[in-house]
Write a structure and sequence with these properties.
alpha+beta; Jelly Rolls; 4 domains; twelve-stranded mixed beta sheet; five-stranded antiparallel beta sheet
């Protein structure tokens, strides 16, 4: 067996001198089991040390399952953890008490041997975990080896107990384990939920560690008892690379980060390009350093790449290079985009599906378009690859009472069918009941689910509280969203009118500063406001459950003394509309407008696909797109948001709400709401961005009154340039304008089925940006169809990375299946299209 793939050696098998840790990790919850043996074993070479204790208290009916001693391993030796094993002749479970919900590390140690009539190397078995039965191992076998096999998993646990079950396979009568570890994962080790939707979703799925690599350095162990192995055996061409290193003490971490993510010994070594003097004589030299890692085909994988630039001469002149991860699009890397100084560590996560070859290739290379031959280089410090486990299964074993497996299977299948029919019946009943009489979100006796006392400070709840009440109350407990009225008054100078930065149907919006210096926007409901408490509650429930770079963050709320107040992050530049017309603000360039539309589309795409349930905004317009100090666009105002249709349904039947002029006509006529209603509103906004005029202007003639109709008229005649913002005339690439107009036209199609999804919209807007920025010379027919392959891919790299976020490449998958659509990926972008959807 290739131990590079399946084995992670325990630190006790390595000299203690190789163990490097700068900070001792002490998990909140930890269980270390010495399986099959009562005496404790303390691994003194660990920093901090681990004490492995008897597994019997965690194993139900432990007397049923024999322990086995390894005659070849002395109990006093350094490998005494593997001197015993727990043997299972039928299904058995370890149960661990969990103090707090979150991500936990589970490690299973296997070191087979023979004795007392058992041959553990012939055992074949499965392992599942959690109450929902996530399959970690299926028909697994651990052959005799000189080193243990250690399987490591990251599990999201949201109950008070973690159950790990072992069961022999039908072809075997044995399962075993030598040691088990369960402990809380450090918070900064978890997947960043602010990242792209596809990555954020993985934080709630089981992950198995497949590879953990120290690039350009030796095997090292860290403070989480993990082993990082050298990368030499995975390099395809060692001659193309160099190994670099620096003093580990020079490595620093970003705020709220530590060596729990990866140790300084990993970040202090790097693999770079081997650029000889003869190569530098050629200004256009270009090659890659490539690693190839074997994996199991048919699974999704999370790839974590670690970087620390200690090779550049200065922070302002740091290297820029290209990173290729599997079949994902090229990603441009520059340390100064992520950190504040040289030799500061950071990492980037990617998720990808593996091709049938069962290999993941990672490459780094010079960014030819943005570097000269003198500052050209590329680097990678560390790499981790995790298999995403999303399957569940019942572990069946040979029954000890002689019941045939076929009978068990028959009973199980019958039970599943019965339960499925019952679930379907209950779902239909609940759905009909909801349609006939909607369940109230609020208790009848109170207008606010957050209020228990007149001051609204109690978090205790009565057992009679509704489900919505309990959920809302939990927000304050779990997320700390509640902000006292006194704090808000202090932040806004008692709602000083001079601090008003906007107003709407809900009330006025004030600029403020909290005591800790955080700039905030305070939306205060006024008596008699058109938006009532349901919108107030919806805003809190939606924004407390989601987080994205292009969605405005909710900082808190207040409901004291009949006040209804929402507190958001402060957006320095205000609304998009104020930058288009009706103010004296500087004119936005076409590039800025495209980047703003792309940002808004990303936020809306996340609402539609990145959450556990589709969220339909229902009020997309230029006043609900806010801009920060760098003109980064964020979608705001979720008071009218609605959960999308459930699985198997096509729409949500609801009363029409939104803003006149942005209404989806199909939704207006039928009251059937879909995510394509948001697409229509977004299309209207695209024309608004282009033409810089209100979507409804009653001062104009009847034919010009409605912007969407007026713009469509000129778009279909191929003369959209006649009605664009006069300040942009002559400043827009012709093909970029054509692509933008085609995209907006598709968005405002009469029927929702003819409108694109936001993944497709994003693709076309980014293409429009590329056409404008790179000024690609295109023929008109090429913008909507296939593009010749000779078009330089390198030219695309000139685009500002702020406007081209290839992390969201999976958004493009839908286009690969829509051959008839004008909104198609061209062949030049075929390398960016993946097979993965939502």
């Amino acid at each position: 067996m290739d131990l590079r793939i399946l084995a992670f050696l325990l630190p006790l098998f390595l000299p203690s001198a190789l163990f490097v840790s700068t900070t001792a990790f002490n998990p909140d919850t930890s269980h270390y089991l010495n399986c099959g043996s009562a005496p404790d074993i303390v691994i003194t070479t660990d920093v901090p040390s681990r004490n492995f204790t008897d597994d019997s208290p965690f194993l139900s009916d432990s007397d049923k399952y024999p322990s086995l001693s390894n005659p070849s391993v002395a109990a006093s030796s350094s490998s005494s953890l593997y001197s015993t094993a727990r043997v299972f002749t039928s299904s058995a479970s370890y149960r661990f008490t969990i103090n707090t919900n979150g991500t936990y590390v589970l490690r299973l140690h296997f070191f087979p041997f023979s004795g007392n009539g058992y041959n553990l190397s012939s055992a074949r078995f499965g392992v599942n975990a959690l109450q929902r039965g996530v399959v970690l191992l299926e028909d697994f076998s651990a052959p005799i080896s000189t080193a243990p096999i250690i399987k490591e998993y990251f599990l999201w646990v949201d109950s008070d107990e973690l159950v790990v079950t072992f069961a022999p396979s039908p072809s075997s009568s044995l399962a075993f384990v030598n040691a088990v570890e369960v402990f809380t994962a450090p918070a900064n080790l978890n997947i960043n939920e602010d990242s792209q939707p596809d990555i954020a979703q993985l934080s709630r799925q089981a992950l198995e560690t497949v590879h953990r690599i120290n690039m350009g350095g030796p095997r090292v162990n860290d403070s989480l008892w993990r082993t990082w192995i050298a990368d030499d055996d995975y390099l395809l061409n060692k001659v193309a690379s160099l190994s670099n290193h620096t003093d580990p003490d020079k490595i620093t971490y970003q705020p709220n980060e530590s060596d729990d993510v990866a140790p300084r010994t990993v970040y202090s070594t790097a693999r770079t390009m081997n650029i000889s003097s003869s190569l530098r004589a050629n200004p256009s030299f270009d090659f890659n350093v490539t690693w190839s890692f074997p994996v199991v085909a048919g699974y999704k994988y999370l790839v974590r790449t670690h970087f620390c630039d200690f090779i550049s001469q200065g922070f302002s002149t740091d290297i820029i290079f290209d990173l290729y991860v599997g079949n994902l699009p090229v990603r441009e890397i520059q340390a100064s985009d992520h950190v504040n100084s040289l030799a500061q560590a950071f990492y980037i996560d990617f998720d990808l599906a593996v091709p049938s070859s069962g290999m993941i290739n990672i490459s780094i290379g010079r960014d030819v378009a943005r570097t000269t031959k003198w500052n050209a280089n590329a680097m990678l410090n560390g790499l981790e690859i995790f298999k995403v486990i999303d399957g569940t299964s019942n572990l069946l074993s040979n029954s000890s009472n002689g019941v045939p497996i076929a009978a068990i299977v028959g009973v199980a299948v019958g039970g599943v069918l019965l339960v499925s029919l019952l679930i379907i019946f209950v779902m239909v009943f609940i759905r009909k009941r909801r349609r006939s009489k909607p369940l109230p979100l609020l208790p009848n006796e109170s207008w606010s689910p957050f209020r228990e006392t007149p001051r609204g400070n109690s978090v205790g709840r009565s057992s009679k509280s509704t489900e919505g009440t309990a959920l809302a109350a939990s927000l304050r407990v779990n997320l700390g969203l509640y902000i006292p009225l006194l704090d808000i008054k202090a932040a806004t100078n008692d709602f000083d009118e001079s601090l008003v930065v906007g107003s709407g149907g809900f009330g006025k919006v004030y600029k403020g500063v909290l005591a800790d210096g955080t700039k905030i926007a305070v939306k205060r409901a006024m008596p008699g406001s058109k938006q009532g408490y349901p919108e107030f509650q919806t805003e809190i429930l939606v924004l407390s459950g989601i987080r994205h770079r292009h969605l405005v963050s909710l900082i808190g709320y207040c409901d004291e003394q009949s006040e209804r107040i929402l507190v958001y992050e402060y957006m320095e530049k205000g609304t998009l509309r104020n930058h288009l017309y009706g103010s004296d603000k500087p004119c936005l360039s076409w590039k800025q407008r495209l980047e703003i539309c792309i940002g808004a589309a990303r936020g809306l795409h996340y609402l539609h696909t990145g959450y556990s349930h589709t969220i339909i905004h229902r009020d997309i317009k230029s006043t609900n797109i806010l801009l920060d100090e760098n003109y980064l666009a964020k979608v705001s105002d979720f008071g009218l948001s609605k959960l999308g249709p459930s699985f198997g349904e096509t729409h949500v039947t609801t009363g029409v709400k939104g803003t006149f002029g942005y209404f989806d006509p199909e939704y207006f006529k039928t009251q059937k709401l879909t995510d394509k209603s948001d697409v229509y509103s977004f299309g209207v906004m695209l024309f608004e961005v282009l033409c810089a005029r209100p979507v409804i202007d009653r001062s104009l003639s009847m034919e010009q009154l409605n912007l969407a109709e007026w713009a469509l008229h000129w778009q279909r005649r191929g003369q959209l340039e006649k009605i664009i913002d006069q300040r942009l005339v002559g400043k827009i690439n012709t093909n970029s304008l054509r692509k933008f107009g085609e995209t907006a036209e598709k968005c405002v199609a009469e029927y929702g089925i003819d409108r694109p999804a936001f993944a497709d919209i994003l693709w076309n807007l980014e293409y429009a940006l590329q056409l404008h920025v790179t000024e690609l010379k295109r023929e008109p027919h090429e913008d909507s169809g296939a593009v010749e392959s000779q078009m330089s891919v390198a030219a695309m790299r000139d685009v500002d990375t702020a406007s081209l976020n290839f992390d969201e490449a999976n958004d493009r998958s839908r286009m690969a299946r829509q051959g008839e659509s004008d909104l198609m990926a061209s062949t030049v972008f075929s390398q960016l299209v993946t097979d993965e959807g939502r």
